[in-house]
Structure prediction request, 557 residues.
Amino acid sequence: MSSLNLDQLYRRVIMDHYKNPRNKGELTDGGLTIDMNNPTCGDRIHLTLQVEDGIVQDAKFDGEGCSISMASASMMTQAVKGKSVEDAVRLSKAFSDMMLGKELDDSLDLGDIEALSGVSQFPARIKCATLAWKAMEKGVDSDANPK
Amino acid sequence: MLTKDMKSRFPILGQEVNGHPLVYLDSAATSQKPDVVIEAIKRYYENDNSNVHRGVHTLGNRATDEYEGARQKVADFINASSVQEVIFTRGTTTSINTVAQSYGRANLSEGDEIVITMMEHHSNIIPWQQLAKETGATLKYIDLEDDGTLSLDKVEETITGKTKIVSVMYVSNVLGTKNPIKEIAEIAHRNGAVMVVDGAQAAPHLKVDVQDLDCDFFAFSGHKMCGPTGIGVLYGKKALLEDMEPVEFGGEMIDFVGLYESTWKELPWKFEGGTPIIAGAIGLGAAIDFLQEIGLENIDKHEKHLAAYAMEKMSEIDGLTIYGPADPDLRAGIVTFNLDGVHPHDVATVLDMNGIAVRAGHHCAQPLMKRLGATATARASFYVYNTEADVDRLADGLRIAKEYFSDVIS
Prediction:
């Protein structure tokens, strides 16, 4: 049995983020808190964000899920830290486009995130990859439009 | 053991998936369909398609005969005492909701109790949660034993004189446990409650006798037993059904319609508002013929054998946990498991890339998952077309998954 196709999904950098998640934990100094789950599979993320002056100063995540969802959460927190809310949301949109297999704007530096591009070929797993990004968007959106 | 030839009766199983011959181990979610069921539906649409119970014309008569003939097959299949006790629904979920919305609303009030178990599928939890909220009744759970079975002592403790409804799954879709329905029904009746059975994972696999079980309601789905999706059954004892109000109103279910008042048809049609699922019922009838031909005892034996074989093969894999009773005699053909350090989604993806279809997730049983201390699990479920060779492929696939993720597990 060949595992060729699996390597397109489980890139080395993804497995590294799964095994050694970055920004795992919780910010305790009263930032934004977002809890989201994927009701079809039980994946769960608890995201905390520190947003000041329109900049994502810090981000941490906790949760349970598969390698794709947890690696994606790790990469997301790494990518948005230090970015403006505007840029973070722009990156999230680009991520969604990547999941749909769309061509991306060359000017965007995706870094590690590009390793997740293979997920687009596994439709059942796209929701795993987008969970953390949706949580981040929901958080900064509620910050921009407080109730 | 059923023969290998059984596979050839299921056209879908002849294909390759991701470059490997398909091994379908997700029958607890939905079973595949044999040639005779597909042909019965095709023959109906090509020859007899018409609405039932209204036409004077020949096609209408044929469609009605076939639809009502399917009802008789269902009645015989579960040993109902009358064909009037068999209501066609959309599936198990609709059947249970019908009991909750009709019998439940009419008979429950504040202070009454509804008793279910910790292993139920969401379809046998949420209708009762809603009913409890609407009526002020209390919803109570019977806890599990650590081996994934129910203790009759705990059943006795939980059901009281205030209990009006007891609803329990016959076979667990996660643990594979076969529950002692007959004994639980006796306890329910002794306390003045009605017994509802979620038979979704039982009807496809073992001989069901509603009179022997002495249950008051029995719900199951066609699509898990070789029939099409969209058709299911609610069995109810005639005396109860006669006193119950319909939950859906409209065409087909009425006797006389006035401007402000209407009356209902007799059983079972008063519960079948609108044009019924005619082709679905006919497909289910063909599925029942197919299963009866094999024999439910043979199916039960075959699956028990495969589950025992799978548990033996899988226990050879280090770091693999199997949930549910260790004794194969206490369970059906469902083996739920986890591989240490590898999330079940990842296990399922690796298996899928090797042509093996399993389920991964919470199996619509979130309270049970919490009780088991797992957020998700993987599940292999067996049916008439599975073989020992399929189990061997599963074990090989699990070894591949383990090796693939060994870097992470270490």
User: Anything to note?
Assistant: The domain at 6-27+296-409 of chain B is CATH 3.90.1150.10 (Aspartate Aminotransferase, domain 1). The interface with chain A takes residues 18-20, 343-346, 349-350, 353-354, 360-362, 366, 369, 375-376, 396-397, 400, 404-405, 407-408 of chain B (CB under 8 Å).
